[in-house]
Design a protein that fits this description.
2 copies of one chain form a homodimer.
Chain A: E1 3-8, H1 10-14, H2 21-30, E2 36-42, H3 47-55, E3 61-65, H4 76-84, E4 88-90, H5 92-104, H6 111-114, E5 118-120, E6 124-126, E7 135-138, E8 148-152, H7 156-175, E9 183-189, H8 194-205, E10 211-218, E11 221-228, H9 230-243, E12 248-250, H10 256-267, E13 271-275, H11 281-286, E14 296-302, H12 305-312, H13 316-322, H14 327-340, E15 345-351, E16 366-373, E17 379-384, H15 389-409
Parallel strand pairs in A: 1-2, 1-3, 3-8, 13-14, 13-15
Antiparallel strand pairs in A: 4-5, 6-7, 7-8, 9-11, 9-12, 10-11, 15-16, 16-17
Helix pairs in contact in A: 2-7, 8-9, 10-15
Chain lengths: 414, 414
């Protein structure tokens, strides 16, 4: 079943509003085994006609958002009626609803809003409890060659409930009884790049039929998604698990911070943080997780040398001899943070986020990471991420959270 | 000049990643007087051919993102070369750059990455300092009927610098000598909502000709953009300045954290942070600014009551009597943070980020903020942002940075 999405809205193309519709539809349709084959954004106005003309012959379903409002550039309703050769008729029930909504809100009714009560012959009205313009469903019409058309409001708070309550059930009916949803599995993988992952896996998975691979690489993490028939996905999953046992953070789309907070919660353990170059982002990321207060009680942002010495007890001589960005300093930071806090694990980082502050020996992008845990030797290692300042911070946060995950799970850190 | 954007990426259509490219391009192109006439998202793979075939005859410029990576579904480069009838040639300079990047990062080079060094004849290579795949510019070619084509990387941190540094100048050249760019000015405004801003300004600005207003509201800040003829923008700017003198953070797109770090640097002052519900995000946001180490030396993340008492000297009785989320506690946190540090200003926050932890008296979204400065009384106030946990944190960070801006500039905080 070929499905496309057409978003109308000049503001989307001017960059005033980020288009979140495609992502929302994509997530929801995936659960029905459907994919968006194409998504198009056009300005308000007459372009809707040419885009629909192009899409009609190749589509089974088109979801259109926007262009149903009261202003002069909202013409989706009129254009569709004309393309299908249908009359627009005044729907008294919609008109009454619009007038009541204006009355309740104490607004003056105007004639422009009445346009929203015009409905093409044969359309199913999709009620909109969150706005004035209802949605419209026009079933496929072979006589004019039109696919199933859903005309939906643009604002997300109107669109989402309508999609969930009225469009999804209609799509399931269109798909027909017994339609089989595809199997899928997502692996969130750390410590392996997208191309290394692909070059290891693709030869191993090439013999499995009815399997599709998808990659999504972000800073420090790669999502590998397997989609296809149930047996194929299971066979491929077994191979992925065998090859990347230690690198798989989770077999879902759970974030690394949720994984780490979950592991700590299960064990009744806590972590404390001592941050230099990440400037508090490790603590902030951990505390993005609801309920993290159980496993995180305090963190230190020690940006200056003095703060490292006073708050974490890093000997001034160590900083003087090796520098603030060094294995010795980060070990002392981690050990001092564990000592000062009641936590079971302490994370410490010291590095050069850049763009300034680097040297030949320690260029911008250099970072030392320390992990201290009760009753174990302090781990420390140097890493290098020569990227922009913000990406560097995010990358280091994911690195240390993965190191902590490994420490908790008993996987070697190195 | 007709310009379209084509985004490739299965993850965009599966809803794993929100497409921010259209909004980014829209904003940046607007400054050149250009608008996106159509934006299309397609999956990775072969669809790029049909979309480009359809778009070639109607476009002067097409910006394509994604599909330049190392994996088997990245085929933009190959498809475009074939459509234009060009050979792909190995670019030794790109290959050397890729190999060097792998070497520096200690990664093993693999053959898949070498594909990224293949370049269609006649293409201008657009360097990518933030990733392995360079961008490509293929000037319009009348013999095959192709418009100007820009093939750009998908990840925003690679795309944005490339667009700014290499694509925009090329577009200006395409527009031609003497093309007149519109005048524009951006006001970044805090503490006023979008609709309040509009209802104050629009009557005052309605008499000015050749002026277009754009609003972009984000959590805790509104950008007001004036675009049009030079005199009109100047006249309107004078009115905006008069009406919102205290609320204008900056007349540019500079972030509030850059503004605050700049103000502190100019005055030779420093700020320290004591964070509960924001969990380190204030410190992290300040330290996103290069050079912030001059004005930020330390921060405390005191998530537990014990940490508030031990690290900031908040009396246990104060917490017991008023609660951790209270004006009294946040005042003691701010005063304690200033006392413990060598800073001139201290920011403290304590609140309930939610979704759990609220009460009838202090529901989730409640936050107390304290600002302590040397020689001045501690300011503290209650605010309420009943939004999701992550948005709450971001909203509070912007609030406190604006309060600090006002304190430094001598503008009343209340």
């Amino acid at each position: 079943m070929r499905l496309e999405v057409v978003n109308t809205g000049t503001e989307l193309l001017l960059g005033k509003v980020i288009n979140t519709h495609a992502a929302y539809f994509g997530q929801e349709l995936f659960k029905l085994g459907l994919r968006i084959q194409r998504q198009t954004t056009i300005p308000d106005g007459i372009d809707i006609r040419s885009v629909l003309s192009e899409a009609f012959p190749r589509c089974d379903v088109i979801l259109v958002t926007g262009g149903l409002g009261p202003t002069s550039d909202d013409i989706t309703r009129e254009v569709v009626a004309e393309m299908l050769g249908r009359e627009l008729q005044l729907d008294e029930a919609i008109l009454a609803t619009i007038r009541e909504m204006f009355r309740v809100r104490g607004l003056r009714q105007n004639l422009l809003n009445d346009r929203q009560a015009m409905v093409p012959e044969g359309a199913v009205v999709l009620e909109n409890p969150h706005g004035t313009a209802p949605g419209l469903y026009l079933p496929a019409d072979e006589t004019v060659g039109s696919p199933h058309l859903f005309l939906l409001p643009g604002p997300p708070r109107e669109l989402k409930p309508m999609f969930r309550d009225l469009v999804q059930p209609a799509l399931i009916r269109i798909l027909g009884e017994g339609a089989e949803l595809p199997a899928w599995r997502n692996f969130r993988i750390y410590g392996v790049g997208e191309s290394a992952l692909a070059s290891t896996l693709e030869p191993l998975l090439s013999g499995i039929e009815s399997l599709e691979l998808g990659y999504c690489a972000r800073l420090g993490e790669v999502d590998l998604r397997l989609i296809g028939e149930g047996d194929s996905v299971e066979a491929a999953s077994a191979i992925v698990r065998r090859e990347f046992a230690d690198q798989i953070v989770v077999e879902s789309e759970t974030s690394i911070e949720e994984v780490v907070v979950g592991l700590l919660t299960d064990r009744g353990e806590a972590v404390a943080t001592a941050e230099s170059c990440t400037g508090g982002l490790i603590a902030s990321t951990i505390t993005d997780v609801p309920g993290s207060s159980v496993v995180f009680h305090r963190g230190y942002v020690t940006y200056s040398n003095e703060a490292k010495s006073i708050l974490l007890g890093v000997p001034e001589e160590v900083i003087a001899a090796h520098g603030a960005v060094s294995e010795e300093t980060v070990k002392a930071m981690a050990a001092g943070c564990l000592e000062a806090s009641d936590a079971d694990h302490a994370i410490a980082v010291s590095g050069i986020a850049g763009p300034g502050g680097g040297s030949e020996e320690k260029p911008a992008g250099t970072v030392y990471v320390g992990i201290a845990s009760r009753g174990r030797e302090v781990f420390a290692k140097r890493y290098f991420y020569p990227v922009d300042r913000i990406s560097f911070k995010q990358r280091v946060v994911r690195l240390v959270l993965d190191l902590l995950r490994r420490r908790i799970r008993g996987i070697p850190l190195d």
